[in-house]
Amino acid sequence: MNEKKVLLIGDGARENALAEALSNNKVFAISSFINPGIKNVVERTGGKYFVGNINSKDFVKEIIKQVNPDFGVIGPEDPLFHGVSNAFYEEGIPVVGPIDKDAMIEKSKVWMRQLMWKYKIPGRLRFKSFSNLAEAAKFIIDYGGSVAIKPSEQVGGKGVKVVADIQAYLSNEKRQALSKSVDEIGKYVADDEVKVIIEERVDGPEYTLHVLTDGSSYLSLPLAQDYKHAYQDGIGPETGGMGSISGPKNLLPFINEEEYERSFNIVKMTAEAIEKETGEKYKGFLSGQMMLTDLWGPTIIEYYSRLGDPEASAIIPRIKNFGEILELMAEGKLSKAKIDLVEEPSVVRAIAPYGYPLNKSLAKGQKFHIDLQKIKEKGCILYFGSIALEGNELIAQGSRALELVAFGDFDEASKKLDECMAYISSDRKIIYRSDIGRTINEMVEKAEIVRYAYKNREKHGILGVSADWSPNGGLW
Ligand code: GLY
Q1: Is the same domain home to 384 and 269?
Q2: β-pairing verdict for 71-74 and 5-9
Q3: Number of the ligand 1 atom closest to the C-alpha atom of 241
Q4: CA-nearest residue, atom 4 of ligand 1
Q5: In this entry, which stretches build a coiled coil (predicted)?
Q6: 378-422 pLDDT per residue, tens
Q7: Beta carbons of 402 and 432 less than 8 angstroms apart
Q8: How many C-beta atoms surround the C-beta of residue 282 within 10 A?
Q9: Structural domain for 179, as ranges
């Protein structure tokens, strides 16, 4: 047992996975409710569990003074946006997680896009930002090409709308409907001057590359893919992620070694650009939520200033020495880290209460019953997410409650997950997707088409050069 003390911030399944990975240390944690999985690690390792506002710098500082940890680990983005990482540094404690200035790469999509253009980072998309929503709707109509409209700030992957067939918007009614949806998207960032960002639309298989840096060295993790849509076969509203896959080895079956290297280079260039822009070294996870597109090959859709969730649940248990890697990063010795990887893939299935994601008040309060012993015997790992231990009961908090993980070839792991699901029940219906890990061939085919197109562009020297079919395309 390593006698180091670590203070972990956060309350989701990603933080449960982090707590397990850190369990060679004494784990102290701050969550906004009692997460049963984190509680178990804290008790096993002789730490202490605090419940409170994880976004309050003052509250976290008080706990840092009480615990005097050797290092800290911050899981979610909100504490980073609120300067909780700064609180650690102000108390002289190293931490995994960027300071607020650097976390702008995730907080503001406009800041991110401007940075990518200023420093000519490959994989960038054309964009426009608007504070006036009527002007935003007009721009879309005038432009005439396909676009993605998003809230200008990070709001947990929600509110994204794609306008692909502009012909469908030529009637007055449809134009009004479009203005209404732009208004709706604008509401996600009610306090901000810039409300929406419009980006040129791209298509292709998505994947996430997480890179850990201590400001000098960079360590890129195995790829993962997040399944964003709520319901089976990728339909329904976007969520934080209903499941994920990772592997085999460092890759995914539809991303090759060269594309992995290019993706890594994009993320590294971005970390260096952030330092030039803010004057502060980026320290923590910088994660590219990427897409293989015909425009660029590897392309940035968004950045996270942390590990993705549920991507983290697919990756962390595959890295046998993840806790040590985090410690090395915090100490500024990341150059010494080498990943000890389980080569076989993993599949993660998120489980949410009925009502998620559209009706959170219906979803909150649902009781779950779990036979943890049987789940282990069947070879699955269970991480607790948005579910609290209240007395002896497991009560859903309104978001994704559990993440179930299995190793093996994608089919084999998916079958294991089916078996383990038998030991999770609730008095109401539960929401999950059993197709996760079962759509690999489709993704491989999609990637082959896109790869042919971007390689062709590259051959002709037009990688990243947009060609608008619209006569009004000069608007960007
Ligand atoms: N998987 C999406 C997110 O972490 O935001």
Answers
A1: yes
A2: parallel
A3: 1
A4: 308
A5: none
A6: 999 999 999 999 999 999 999 999 999 999 999 999 999 999 999
A7: no
A8: 25
A9: 126-200
